[in-house]
Design a protein that fits this description.
Blueprint (H helix, E strand, L loop, with lengths): L7 H10 L4 E5 L5 E2 L14 E5 L3 E10 L9 E8 L4 E4 L14 E7 L4 E6 L7
Antiparallel strand pairs: 1-2, 1-3, 4-5, 4-7, 5-6, 7-8
């Protein structure tokens, strides 16, 4: 009996829990994909490869998630355009809920215990 292949999401999370931030690249058309997929969203090929991400990106959009003060209060959620292509949703640490500037250059940091990527400002005040 053949063992079923891991889902792309499971593969991605396992890499994060081991301290690796990797994203998929299509071997057929060279597109970059995020979130993880089973087929290329540009050409439909299943020839997807995992490659290390640089972790650098630029804040494309930011919003505030309201939360009661006893649960930590409001926080920011951002869309980051990754340097190699693709866009991901995350959080910028060190910034208030309403303080993340669009165009901020950020650098990824992996939280291995929760298997998630958060971003820090790459350089204070640096903008794309």
């Amino acid at each position: 009996m053949q063992t079923p292949a891991k889902s792309p999401e499971t593969r991605y999370r396992e890499a994060l829990s081991q301290g690796r931030f990797e994203i998929q690249h299509c071997g057929a058309c060279a597109s970059v994909m995020f979130p993880p997929r089973i087929a290329c969203c540009a050409c439909g090929s299943s020839a997807l490869e995992w490659r290390p991400a640089t972790g650098r990106g630029t804040v494309h959009a930011s919003t505030v998630v309201a939360q009661r003060p006893e649960k930590g209060g409001p926080y920011n959620v951002v869309l980051v355009d990754l340097e190699e292509g693709g866009r991901m949703m995350s959080h910028v640490a060190g910034y208030g809920a309403r303080d993340v500037p669009i165009g901020l250059v950020v650098s990824a940091r992996i939280e291995t215990e929760t298997a998630r990527v958060v971003f820090d400002a790459a350089d204070a005040g640096e903008r794309a």
